[in-house]
Amino acid sequence: MAARTTRVVLIDHPGGPEVLRVEERMVEAPSAGEVLLRHTAIGVNFIDIQHRSGRYPLAAYPATLGIEAAGVVLEVGEGVEAVQPGQRVVYSFPPFGSYADLRCVKAEHLVPIPDTVGDDIAAAVFNKGITAHYLLHTTYRVQKDETIVVHAAAGGVGSLLCQWASAKGADVIGVVGSQEKVATAASNGCAHVVVHSREDLPARVRALTGGAGVPVVFDSVGRDSFEASLLCLRPRGMLVSFGTASGPLPPFDLFRLNTLGSLYVTSPGYVTHTQDRAELLWRAGDVFAAVADGTLRVALGKVYNLADAAEAHRDLQGRRSIGVSILRPA
Predict the structure, then answer these.
(1) Between β-strands 300-305 and 324-328, what pairing exists: parallel, antiparallel or unpaired?
(2) Where is the Enoyl reductase (ER) domain (predicted)?
């Protein structure tokens, strides 16, 4: 392989968006079981902010951020048969480092992109779509005619959760942070939209359910919404806490789950639901099929140059993003 260089976006220590910097590095040939990719679109996820800030500490520094990207296979290492040079693929898996032009990745983590899906959409939907898939089909199997609550209903995973649950026949109460996001949540299939800064969420949910509460709340906000989410649940309901955008959850006395109605709380993770390749391909196949048939509509947000990753982080952390943002390599 001829010598190649790549730009990478990395941090030398945890901090704010200002710690992100761009550096050029050499790229080695793919080792056995690996593939060299040329990234075409890079997903921006809230977990990238958690890694940058130190909320989820990284093993060593300097560290390159990013968990997700779509790209084209340039070269394959010894023993790789699942993908071929020239094939379009997408992935989302540690080790981190997708904020780059070129990268070597283990072939076992790559999923071919069907012809019906473009690279931008693949990078925007892969991690978030698979997350929505296991939340709705494994963590809590949402049924027709159930009323559910979804926080961040205009955001990345939230948008997909609302669309998919609505397509399954559920009555979705979407929660958003501002009036400007109400229309987006409604377009995602929410039958009711609550602006959490203006309304008492548990009271509204009780009013909409005849006082019963809901069987499940999907909450990616964390600290600021945890208590309200619990109070929305009916007896033996489940709070699915899958993100902490507002900060880590407060210390909690588990016996309160008993007194609030024998409630359940769970915190499912992406890696646990995709470690087995057959499971990864099943979930990815369902996501791409749902995109192709219109069940999932991926609203692409702003497209940033790779070198402008700090701006993308500021917008996402400030909750100014609507839809899914991506980074564009050179």
Answers:
(1) parallel
(2) 15-327
3-state secondary structure of 188: coil
Other Cβ atoms within 10 Å of 88 Cβ, number: 19
User: Whole-prediction pTM value?
Assistant: 0.92
pLDDT in tens, 99-148: 999 999 999 999 999 999 999 999 999 999 999 999 999 999 999 999 99
CATH 3.40.50.720 domain span(s) along the chain: 140-267
Pick the CATH number of 4-127+274-328 from 3.40.50.11240, 3.90.180.10, 1.10.630.10, 2.40.160.10: 3.90.180.10
Report yes or no: 173 and 205 within 8 Å, Cβ to Cβ: yes
Contact between residue 15 and residue 58 where contact means Cβ atoms under 8 Å apart: no
Residue 65, amino acid: L
Residue 305 region by backbone torsions, left for phi larger than 0, else alpha for psi between -120 and 50, else beta: beta
SS3 category, 249: coil
As a whole number of angstroms, the distance between CA 325 and CA 303 comes to: 6
Name the amino acid, one letter, at 139: T
Tokens of 103: 């990268």
- Which residue ranges does the chain devote to CATH 3.90.180.10? 4-127+274-328
Q: Does domain 140-267 have CATH number 3.40.50.720?
A: yes
